[in-house]
């Protein structure tokens, strides 16, 4: 039988023997052992502590082991651990009501999934059924999840070996630092990115396009905060051609960008919203689609041909209720915005002024990317080997980072304290100095 494993070495050995990892060459893995955590800190079995500037996979927005959420899961486990999706369950209803309470007017229904990928999968399906069209336009710099349509909607390298779904088209979005549009101002970048998108709609044939699917703020692609007016411009294009707008808030939502939904700050309302990660900080796997009344009405007298055994699982639902209540009562969304405004934003700007390797810093809330370049003029990205050294040195100094391509993403839990931000940024400062 299996014995409890409680040291770094045996945990690592057991993992290497039996666990098949995501997105990895299995023989080249050397996973870091994590035994426990609290708030913005995690530790291994030797008691080595790390400031979690990754929030794991940018999902532990409320911090590790928040006592109210742990207790809510425990309590629900004692009452009813599982229930079929066809039944009405109090916690599932409460969770859906908590989510719609933070949505714009005209969003009253939630379809729960197991995570973010299948949230996008089902949102795409709804858009296709409502419009009677099949194409989905998404962006090259995006990640939407690892299932049939979601991975083909994805814009990064992870799509390329997985292209089995049909009806997907990609466009470039605004990204002034590496502009695809020869733009030199945010206004130009915005205008040209919108023109490019509208031309793609026209050339694909507007009557074939069901949805435009965008991350409100592309996350893993580099925390690409859109220029003012871009998303409202996309909304206008969608309206002009009868296309539904799906905003993927899986990473950006629930305090990450300093808002309940990142689009709250952008002056537009989508037709469908997908969520996961921060909705319950991953304490139990869950995601979902927030459905506007316009889309929901379509299924009032037609079947929705889709479902999941664990749709609205009671343990997930209980953790959502507790998480949203804690975020409200403890002011966590406002705290995240303030951390961005007064601590991470100014702190990272100071580092950028000091270290030539920092090409650009962008973000808001607890959602930031630091773009690292070997040449400030040409913006040549630093190498993968350099990024490997950065990661190793940060870990040595007690900071667990999130890195992607040539970027350090500074994405701590939304409950991170000003003191923890100061400590983490000092470690980044020292590490960049050491690597210079
Ligand atoms: N959408 C976005 C924006 C994401 O960042 C992710 C995950 O990183 C997903 C979708 C997929 O979510 P999941 O891994 O829960 O399926």
Name its key features.
single chain, 436 residues, alpha/beta, Aspartate Aminotransferase, domain 1, Aspartate Aminotransferase, domain 2, 2 domains, 7-stranded mixed β-sheet, 5-stranded antiparallel β-sheet, 16 strands, binds pyridoxal-5'-phosphate
Q: Short summary of the structure?
A:
Belongs to the class-III pyridoxal-phosphate-dependent aminotransferase family. With 436 residues, the chain is α/β, with parallel strands linked by helices.
Question: What share of residues are in beta strands?
Answer: 15-25%
How are the strands of the biggest sheet laid out side by side?
4-10-9-8-7-5-6
Total DSSP E strands: 16
Average pLDDT works out at: 97
CATH architectural group of the largest domain: 3-Layer(aba) Sandwich
Shape: globular
CATH superfamily of the largest domain, please? Type I PLP-dependent aspartate aminotransferase-like (Major domain)
* Overall helicity: 25-40%
Backbone CA Rg: 22 Å
Q: Summarize the main sheet.
A: 7 strands, mixed
Give me the secondary-structure category: alpha/beta
Protein name: Taurine--2-oxoglutarate transaminase
Pfam family, one: Aminotran_3
GO cellular component, one term: cytosol
GO molecular function, one term: transaminase activity
